[in-house]
Amino acid sequence: MSGTQEFLFDLSDTGGVDYTDESTNIDARTLDEMRELMAAYPQPRSALIPMLHLVQSVDGRVSSVGVRVCAELLGISAAAVVGVATFYTMFKRKAAGQHHIGVCRTALCAVMGGDILMERVSEKLGIKDGETSPDGKFSLEAIECNAACDFAPVMMVNWEFFDNMTPDKVEKLLDDLRVGNRVQSPRGAQLTSWREAERVIAGFSDGRADEGPGAGEASLAGVQAARVNNWRAPDAKSMTGAAQ
């Protein structure tokens, strides 16, 4: 082969980002907040993940415009942005609902009824895993482990935990969300919306971080047993000696 070779890259059909939809709510304020996030890191590129959460907070998804803006501000390629956005399941390529429902179906939650909960949510909302209701009110996702096995089966709504769920609890929760009733996470804050939660994850406080208990009773059972029995962790030096 001889001469100059030119390679053209077409990202229009990769990663599920809809490049045909140029709609966006990103404005001057959003751009200023992205720069604020970049300034918080020694290497601006480290801000990409919170920047993508901020994009979701305004566009409801990782939008094509959001990909381009992040790439331009950070001085990286759109492919690099898409690589991150499509690696993490918290980033959505299609618009999520006002309330994003996540049902854990991994191991213990499945044994304790997670699959039944998923079926009940799907039937009640008329949507399947990965879909959003036509009215934009709800979206549904099967989650691989919520890391809350001591409260199985668990669900998340807008990333807030709902513990020890049953089909009846699911019915009431969804009914309350549909009509706009106040809903409080048993181990977190009062629910707002998925987009508002995404803004908090991006790093912008809504002033409600201290709502709800820091840990549930089941999570503290081991610590409480240790205190009652005066259990202590082994001394580091004694462990080193034993290993020798």
Fold and architecture overview:
The protein is α+β, with helices and mostly antiparallel strands. The chain has two domains: 12-95, Arc Repressor Mutant, subunit A (Orthogonal Bundle), CATH 1.10.10; 99-189, Glutaredoxin, CATH 3.40.30.10. Helix content is 40%, strand content 7%. The protein has ten helices and four strands. It has a four-stranded mixed β-sheet with strand order 2-1-3-4, covered by helices on one side. A hairpin with a 2-residue loop joins strand 3 (155-157) and strand 4. Helix 6 packs parallel to helix 7. The longest helix is centred in the C-terminal third of the chain and has 13 residues, at 167-179. It is globular and about 60 Å long. The chain starts with 27 loop residues before the first helix and ends with a helix. Residues 9-14 have low confidence and may be disordered.
How would you sum up this structure in a few lines?
The chain has 2 domains: 12-95, Arc Repressor Mutant, subunit A, CATH 1.10.10; 99-189, 3-Layer(aba) Sandwich (Glutaredoxin).
- Major sheet characteristics: 4 strands, mixed
CATH class of the largest domain: Alpha Beta
| Tally of individual helices | 10
Q: Specify the overall morphology.
A: globular
Low-confidence stretches: 9-14
Radius of gyration: 22 Å
CATH topology of the largest domain: Glutaredoxin
Percent of residues in helices: 40-55%
Indicate the mean pLDDT.
89
Estimated share of beta-strand residues: 5-15%
CATH superfamily of the largest domain: Glutaredoxin
